[in-house]
Amino acid sequence: MTVRDALNSALDEEMSADPKVFLMGEEVGEYQGAYKISKGLLDKYGPERVLDTPITEAGFTGIGVGAAYHGLKPVIEFMTFNFSMQAIDHIINSAAKSNYMSAGQMSVPIVFRGPNGAAAGVGAQHSHCYASWYASCPGLKVLAPYSSEDARGLLKAAIRDPDPVVFLENELLYGETFPVSAEVLDSSFCVPIGKAKIEREGKDVTITAFSKMVGYALKAAEILAKEGISAEVINLRSIRPLDRDTINASVRKTNRLVTVEEGFPQHGVGAEICASVVEESFGYLDAPVERIAGADVPMPYAANLERLAVPQVEDIVRAAKRACYRSVPMAAAA
Amino acid sequence: MASASSFSATKFAQPLPLNGTTSRSHDKHQSFFDPLRTTPSSSSFLGSTRKLRLSSASKLKLLANPNRRSAVVAVSDVVKEKKAKSTTNLLITKEEGLVVYEDMILGRAFEDMCAQMYYRGKMFGFVHLYNGQEAVSTGFIKLLKREDSVVSTYRDHVHALSKGVPARAVMSELFGKTTGCCRGQGGSMHMFSKEHNLIGGFAFIGEGIPVATGAAFSSKYRREVLKEVDCDHVTLAFFGDGTCNNGQFFECLNMAALWKLPIVFVVENNLWAIGMSHMRATSDPEIWKKGPAFGMPGVHVDGMDVLKVREVAKEAIGRARRGEGPTLVECETYRFRGHSLADPDELRDPAEKAHYAARDPITALKKYMIENSLASEAELKAIEKKIDEVVEDAVEFADESPHPSRSQLLENVFADPKGFGIGPDGRYRCEDPKFTQGTAHV
């Protein structure tokens, strides 16, 4: 099952199960979704529940929030999360803070979803990972699926959740196929928010990653295994709440940590994980934490520079080896 | 309609034509514009939308009928018509008049008390008072049902009171007490009451408009998708002249008209965005004209006259309730105090302030009621006395109420606090009774 089909089926099933769920955004209806995530939904649910909006991020995001105040369950699609900057006031100020400001009177059951982070060759303004931005805000839940199982289970959980959820997809994963179990295909399938998944068990070094970087971390773990290093790969799934327990338990076992993300290093997800491990498992660390992140520059357009600006599998391999005190040649970018 | 479209902007070339004795009101011009009579019914415009959905059929029908009159008509017409029809020649009954008067007095007395309490250090932060604009809040909100929603701005105390939130709950909120309508977690600029469908004071310019549009969207959705056939709830969005230069205003006028949402956009044009004069900030200062530009009626009304506001509000709310779509109403009003209690208010001309002070909406209503024998001086005095007691009681109540407990700090961040994570034992951290006792990891 592709990630695209996983997202599409999750949307379809949740819309079918609950008439309060509706989808709103640019090109979600007649165009079938800019990335075809909403394919077929307009025909099935009609234009009252699959709403093509004008190009008005601030407007339609706020409309979604207002509808959620009155108990509807909007799914707001950003064509990409880069455009959510036009609507961030509503995500942060109108959605995330209302339950608190109203002392629990106004819950906001809304999902903001769309592709996040670097695609390919689209330049600086279209290649920004917002995971750490949204994850720094109380009142938001921030999810980042990697596989088809994640995509289905987390999107269903997000739609059923009574709070605002930022759901960060990755354009380059949409077409990827992952094997799924019968359980995942069941319409009741749901993945708990706030729980990370250990994608691969290991004992020498812990690698944390989310979204597309989970795939890179798994590839790195394979390479490392050939060289006798057993890496444990944690798919974070949920950026906020962050599953500190799973991360710390793993680090206490392996005593080494490499964090991987595509976003910028400063105040990033890796920085937060590092802080958590230093706070809770300092005595267990046998090596400095290695933090792999995107280069601290706006995304360049040139293909070779772009490749240098985002983490690559070999960067993760090198960092893991450094953490395990294996001698490695100096890396240029990592 | 030629009068509206040929309306010359040169009239507003002088920076402040308001300080004289003439009203800023554009009464001599027809202040209503029916978009359905002037929208060109060009079918080629819709031609490329092969499978045009939504209410395309009805839309085309409307366009094809150039003589269709909208439900909202010019203020002066309504007033004239009413006068002609009504045997008593009065715009309001005694009972209605007393309710309206009481609500306006409550708004005024409450805000005056807020100023006192602010200077005594009982409330803090930004406190924006509503004095002078009471005719708008009362004129509109008192016509609503409880199920109807109100979305306000940072200047939201009086909207909350008009919508029925008790003065005690609002005052307590301002004092930061746990008995406040948001248990002290919202504050002056963030009044919410689910029970009264007051869905927020929004502190940022333009922020409330999409939220209000979404509330109106939910009424339509409930009626059309969830088949709650008698859901005819209306939403009022209140905002000021400064907001009308913000993009979210235009985005939502468009979508509200496009989807025929049951909403009234109520502009409280008090002429000043803090220290920025409306005339200095706006290319065409007649805000109501932006309604027709988006295909909805635009109405201008004297916002210092609660009876005129009521007439316009009745039409606009009725139109929304009947499913005929949104209306833009520009209420020409004035705030008698600075932008907030922290504003030294040095830029507004004293003559301008005096001009509007002389048009105090409460004094005007009082005069009308007495002159038309709708109420005696004594009756109105009794109302004032009663409200003084209500406000005094609210202060006492707020003062005596407890501060929020420490454990309240971490509550209400999420409706489902499982968001705070799952512990190693598989239990949710929030289930730990000590969870709210300290700074928990989130």
From TrEMBL, chain A:
Cell compartments where the protein resides: Mitochondrion matrix
UniProt keyword terms in alphabetical order: Metal-binding, Mitochondrion, Oxidoreductase, Potassium, Pyruvate, Thiamine pyrophosphate, Transit peptide
Recorded superkingdom: Eukaryota
Catalyzed reactions: N(6)-[(R)-lipoyl]-L-lysyl-[protein] + pyruvate + H(+) = N(6)-[(R)-S(8)-acetyldihydrolipoyl]-L-lysyl-[protein] + CO2
Protein name: Pyruvate dehydrogenase E1 component subunit beta
Gene Ontology molecular-function annotations: metal ion binding; pyruvate dehydrogenase (acetyl-transferring) activity
GO BP terms in the entry: pyruvate decarboxylation to acetyl-CoA
Residue stretches making up the Transketolase-like pyrimidine-binding domain: 1-176
Native source organism of the sequence: Salix koriyanagi
Database matches in SMART domains: Transket_pyr
EC number per UniProt: 1.2.4.1
Binding partners and assembly: Tetramer of 2 alpha and 2 beta subunits.
Lineage, highest ranks first: Eukaryota, Viridiplantae, Streptophyta, Embryophyta, Tracheophyta
PANTHER family named among the record's database cross-references: DEHYDROGENASE RELATED, PYRUVATE DEHYDROGENASE E1 COMPONENT SUBUNIT BETA-1, MITOCHONDRIAL
Top-level enzyme category: oxidoreductase
Role played: The pyruvate dehydrogenase complex catalyzes the overall conversion of pyruvate to acetyl-CoA and CO(2). It contains multiple copies of three enzymatic components: pyruvate dehydrogenase (E1), dihydrolipoamide acetyltransferase (E2) and lipoamide dehydrogenase (E3). The pyruvate dehydrogenase complex catalyzes the overall conversion of pyruvate to acetyl-CoA and CO2.
A Pfam cross-reference name: Transketolase_C
Cofactors (names): thiamine diphosphate
Xref: InterPro entries: PDHB_mito-type, THDP-binding, Transketo_C/PFOR_II, Transketolase-like_Pyr-bd, Transketolase_C
Recorded GO CC terms: mitochondrial matrix
UniProtKB/TrEMBL annotation, chain B:
Catalytic activity: N(6)-[(R)-lipoyl]-L-lysyl-[protein] + pyruvate + H(+) = N(6)-[(R)-S(8)-acetyldihydrolipoyl]-L-lysyl-[protein] + CO2
Enzyme Commission number(s) from the entry: 1.2.4.1
GO biological process, one term: pyruvate decarboxylation to acetyl-CoA
All residue ranges annotated as the Dehydrogenase E1 component domain in the record: 103-404
EC main group: oxidoreductase
UniProt keyword Oxidoreductase, yes or no: yes
Keywords from the UniProt entry: Oxidoreductase, Pyruvate, Thiamine pyrophosphate
GO molecular function, a single term: pyruvate dehydrogenase (acetyl-transferring) activity
Pfam families in the cross-refs: E1_dh (PF00676)
Cofactor(s) needed for function: thiamine diphosphate
Job description of the protein: The pyruvate dehydrogenase complex catalyzes the overall conversion of pyruvate to acetyl-CoA and CO(2). It contains multiple copies of three enzymatic components: pyruvate dehydrogenase (E1), dihydrolipoamide acetyltransferase (E2) and lipoamide dehydrogenase (E3).
Quaternary assembly: Tetramer of 2 alpha and 2 beta subunits.
Protein name (record): Pyruvate dehydrogenase E1 component subunit alpha
Source species: Salix koriyanagi
